[in-house]
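Weekly structure sync, notes
Attendees: PL (lead), two postdocs, one rotation student
Agenda item 3: pending single-chain targets
PL asked that the sequence for the first pending target be pasted directly into the notes so everyone works from the same version. It is reproduced below exactly as submitted, 373 residues in total.
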Amino acid sequence: MDISPSPDLDYLPRLPRDKSIGIGCIGSGFIMADCHLVAYRNAGFNPVAIASRNRANSQAVADRHGIKTVYDTYQELLQDPKVDIVDVAVPPQLLLQVVKEAVKHAGHIKGILAQKPLGINFAEAQEIVRLCEEAGIALGVNQNMRYDQSIRACKDILNKGYLGKPVFASIDMRAIPHWMPWQKELGWATLRTMSIHHLDTFRFLFGDPQRVYASVAQDPRNAATFEHEDGIALYILEYENGFRASAWDDVWTGPAREGAESDIYINWRVEGTEGMATGNIGWPSYPLPVPSTLDFTTTRHAGWQRPRWKEVWFPDAFAGPMAQLMCAVEENREPEISGKDNLKTMALVEACYRSFREHRAIAIDEVLAGQSA
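Predicted structure, written out during the meeting:
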């Protein structure tokens, strides 16, 4: 039977019926000012207040995005009854203390959207999830690569069976992220900041692996300014059904900032028994708005299918994590990217650290059992 692919793939987030729910923003850095709030404005969401460590910066962001209320501290913002959902974009070492304060206001706060990673380790993520569950607050995690348009479209063609049974998938990243000061403070480079996107995307597309084997090397560029282990990260995910996934997260990419020509990209590939899909992530071209792409071919169709769209990951996809939390709040259910689900992503990241340190494959259940690395 022919299953001609629809030209209208499901690549956009489902939006809430009520877009007026009040969002309180904690943090005023790049990710809030240039991604979250741009996407929220375009989606018609309702940020009502903002606070950060720098009042002047908060005010500038509020003026730019038309946010009426600016608080000196996030504690004051959390007391505002107009705030129904809290959007937290702070360094990971500060996330737990913000959540501890937020849950004190469960009378009016119905949801929290936490930036990834969900704390500095798996144990801290568990505590954040516990606090929100006990307070009856819906916890969503901003794993926004799930809402990159090509990844969302790939999930759709997998759900529709166009590729048959998945056999192998890969992500090949040769790109230089914008490093944040807190990463240097924590000694983090790639695994908890960039690889966490790819590990979570593999989980989104294919479910949970049994084990992971990871190997890392230092990034020569970052090694000149701060100590780290995980500059270049390579890892293989093993699934019970025989499926395999792997990624090469190369943030060095050669001396592209030291005088040589650059070759920057993020490509992904999925191979199945009845088809194959390839994609390119447009994010490395930011601030140029370059859409990610998806091309796929199947045994049932002639030629390549090449759907295209105008939306881009940065900033458009950032509407998705907030939208899924808003939908969960108004429908009184678990968010699609819930804190409880994200514990498995955090466990997978933690397993990668244990794997390269112990030079062995790590079963994810070792971490889920509470043995934090």
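Discussion points:
- The mean pLDDT is 96.
- The longest helix spans residues 339-358.
Action: rotation student to compare against the earlier draft before next sync.
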